[in-house]
Hints:
Elements: E1 5-11, H1 15-26, E2 31-35, E3 50-51, H2 58-77, E4 89-93, H3 96-111, E5 116-120, H4 121-127, E6 137-141, E7 145-146, H5 149-162, E8 166-169, E9 173-177, E10 180-183, E11 188-196, H6 202-205, E12 212-223, E13 231-234, E14 247-255, E15 260-268, H7 278-291, E16 300-310, E17 317-320, E18 327-331, H8 341-353
Parallel strand pairs: 1-2, 1-11, 2-8, 4-13, 11-18
Antiparallel strand pairs: 3-7, 4-6, 5-6, 9-10, 10-11, 12-15, 12-16, 13-14, 14-15, 17-18
Helix pairs in contact: 1-5, 1-8, 2-8
Bound molecules: flavin-adenine dinucleotide (FAD).
Amino acid sequence: MRPEMSDVIVIGAGIVGASCALRLQQDGWQVSLIDAGSPGCGVTAAGMGHLVALDETDQELQLCLFSLRLWREFLTSHPGVGEHSACGTLWVAENEAQLKEAQHRAERLSQHGWHADALNGEQLRRLEPALRKGLCGGVRVSGDSVVYPPLIAHHMVQDLEKRGGKLLAGQKVAAIGEGCVVLSNGHRLHARHIVVAAGMGVADLLPEIAVFGRKGHLAITDRYPGTLSHQIVSMNYGQAAVSADALAVAANVQPRPSGQWLLGSCRQDQQADTAIDPHALGAVLQAAMALLPCLAEMRVIRAWAGMRPASPDGQPIIGPHPWRAGVWLAAGHEGLGVTTAMATAVLLADQIAGRHSDLNGEAYLPSRFFPSREVHYA
Ligand SMILES: Cc1cc2nc3c(=O)[nH]c(=O)nc-3n(C[C@H](O)[C@H](O)[C@H](O)COP(=O)(O)OP(=O)(O)OC[C@H]3O[C@@H](n4cnc5c(N)ncnc54)[C@H](O)[C@@H]3O)c2cc1C
C-alpha cells in the first residue's frame, strides 16, 4: 500500500465521523480520519449531548433506541469517559393535552423496553423541587443520559490511533475525486472508500446533498451544585421544521456534572451564521425560567449558538452516494447527531462490509433524495 493510501478515509472528526472511523478500524480497515480543525471542534462542541429516546415517529424511536443501547455498551466499557451522567430525562407537561401525550410517551417507550414512568404534578415536583408549582405532570425516562460530546470524540480518536488508525488534524479537504481526496494544500490522499461526515461542511464538498443549518442557541449558568438532578425538557420540544425565519423554542435544561445548568433550546432556519441573536436567546431563557423560576436569581455566564446539520426530510443521510462510487455519507443528523452517532457508525460499517444490519437503514439512504432517472451508478 502506498503511504498516502488507506482502505477508508473519513472526512470530519465530529461525533459522527469519529464514531464511524473507530467502528471501521475495529472492523479491520486501515482508516485515516481527516479534520480541518481538531476532533469534536464542529457542532459537536456546540450542542447539549443529551442521549435521548425521541419518539416523534416509530422510525426515529427505533434509531434512537438502537443507538442508545450501543452508547450504553460503550459507556459501560469506558467508565469515566466524556463526563457521562446517568441523569435521565424529565419531560414536563404544562397542560392536559401535553399530559395525555406524556402518558402515551411513557407507554410507547416502555413497550420498546426503554423504561419510562408517567408522573402526576405532585410526583414531578417531588423529583425536581426547583420546577414551578402547578405543572400537570410528565414522564421520567431513566435510561436517557448526558455526555460531553467533544470529549467523547477526542477519546474515540485516541482509541482509533491506538488501533493503528491515523488522524490528520488541521487538514481541510478541498475536493473529493475518484478514489481520492484533495487537501487544500493540493496534496492527494487515496482510499477505496471515502466517508463524508463533515457536518455543515458536506454542503461544500457535495453540493448535490442538501444539508442545511438549523440554528440553536444555548447558555450556561454559574455553578449551583445539587439543585437539579434530571435533564428537564418541555413536552412541546421536537425536531419539527420551522418556517422561513420563524423561531421554535422549547425549554430544555441540563444539569452539568460541574453544577452548572445548560439552558436551551431553539430552532431557526435560513440563518447565515452562528452570531448570537438576542431575541432568540431571550426567548430560550424565558422558556427555561417559565419551568424553573429560580433561574431568575441565577447567573448566566456564557451563551453561544450552533448550526445543526439538517436534511430536507429531517432524517439522517447514511449510506452510499447514489452516483459517486466509493463515496459514503454520514450526515444530516440535525438535533440527534450525538444520540444517533453510534447507530450511524454500525449501519455504515455494515453497508461498507456488505453485511446485514440489525437495524433497517433503508429510510436513511442518500438515494431517497434523487429521482431514479438522475441516478448514475459508476
Ligand atoms: C444547540 C444544539 C443542541 C444540540 N443538542 C443535542 C443533543 O442534546 N443531543 C444530540 O444527540 N444532538 C444534539 N445536537 C446535534 C449534534 O450536536 C449534531 O447533530 C452532531 O454534533 C453532528 O455531528 P457531526 O460529526 O455530523 O458534525 P460536526 O461536529 O460539525 O463535525 C464535522 C467535522 O467535519 C470537519 N470538516 C468540515 N468540513 C471539512 C473539510 N472540508 N475538510 C476536513 N474537515 C472538515 C469539521 O471541522 C468538523 O470537525 C445539538 C446541536 C445544537 C446546535
